[in-house]
Amino acid sequence: MRAFLCVSVIFVSVLAGFSQAGRKDAVAFDADFMPALFADADRLEKIKKTFPAIEKVWREHASRNNYPGIAYGIVVDGKLVFSGSDGFSNLERKTPATTSTLFRIASMSKSVTAMAIMKLRDEGKLRLDDPVYRYVPEMKGQRYLTSDSTHVTIRDLLTHGAGFPEDNPWGDRQLADTNRELTEFLNKGIQFSNPPGVAYEYANLGFALLGRIITKASGKPYQRYIRDSIWRPLGMPTSEWEYTNISPDKLAHGYRWQGGKWIEEALLNDPADGSWGAMGSMISSIDEFSRYMALHMSAWPASNDADAGPVKRASVREMHHPWRFIGLSPNFAYPGTGRVCATTSAYGYGINWMRDCERRVYIGHGGGLPGFGSHWRVMPEYGIGIVAFANVTYAGLGNINLQILDQIIREAGLKPREIPVSPILAQRKAELLKVIPAWENAEKSGIFAENFFPDNPVDLLKPRYADLWAKAGRIVSVGEIVPENQLRGRFVIEGEKANIEVFFTLSPENPPLIQQLNVREIPKR
Known about the structure:
This protein has 13 helices and 20 strands. It is an alpha+beta fold and about 525 residues long. The strands form 5 sheets. It has a 9-stranded antiparallel sheet with strand order 5-4-3-15-14-13-12-11-10, with helices on both faces. Strands 16, 17, 18, 19 and 20 form a 5-stranded antiparallel sheet that branches.
């Protein structure tokens, strides 16, 4: 087998990425690279069998929590494969809620704002580590808490690390503020709760400033830039910022449940010169927002496929990275089952990130405003996503969506994508099996990195391996390698009396060589 990377790497002259300054960089890539794939050919059909049960969960949740209306959907492999609704979008007119009804989705807007920032970064119009005052001059003279504070950067705003205080629900009431009012607010001075870059603290103000940065860097109002650069290319023609632009029969009205009855909330304005809408003013439907979710899902796994945009896959994946730590929940219990499974959480760029004890990663965001609640999540390694909107104040949809995702995975028996075995891993495995357990002429085999034998003297390896193979007895079979990535994996050697697990990892040199090798006895199954 040919050496990995020796002939499989080709150079391409197509656009493959931008530096922070916007310089076009062509990259070399491995034309033989194989992205992770789903092994279960019946996966979608198994998922579909769960739909009647999960629809019941949503409807019962809506009834139990007095939602006037709810709309929801499941996205699999970038397609809205199931959607539904219940109740009313307008109680006075008895207008049924549908998957095309336009709900205000509140802070779900933040990831869209962050995506616009990433697109401008890729276009070379800003840098994530630029100080905010470069685009918002009023930030230049702010009074920080300490003399060693750094100026707030765009990256700080994206990750809720600017040092601004948590501002819910105060921030919700700023949607109608004009650009002039935001300028006046900034000129009076911001009160900081922390120095920039020190801690995570959720701040709507930060995303209002990101809206102003988008406007400055793009040369057009952030609302128009996002509509032109993200919504339209994705096929989201009816999504809006301002509710007065929406046909009354399509608009969801918001309500508060109080004293055993629904009270209509005043719809919050986002005028044409609004300054805070980037943090929570977006209005969309299940049908259209699912297309935005599909863009996030298309970023995984990394591959050689054509990059369809409108934002580069690599930049979307960058949004998903856990950039700022939030916390650890050692006793987290999954809603519905009560199964305890520790989780850790962080914030990406306008995105919440969570990973549980079973290594499942969830990416998404919730939203809440007077009259509305919303939530979406995608699981990149499972290719599945969920979204739900409701028209009652701060409707809690995060836990029920998490419960449903967990239910689908359990009932459909879903597994994450599996990484194919790279040619070099398969090659090194075959070569390694010719060397172990005897280790004869191993130093001349040419498959070990320069560090290996200084770290693992042969005179110590031989007796240890001989003892382990003796415990195993006659070798019955050698299992397939299970890769962790392109250069690391493990496989099991089955013996009559015991099994042996072999783990190895390769070096970054070309061609890659074995730098680490671990073997251990494992129980027979």
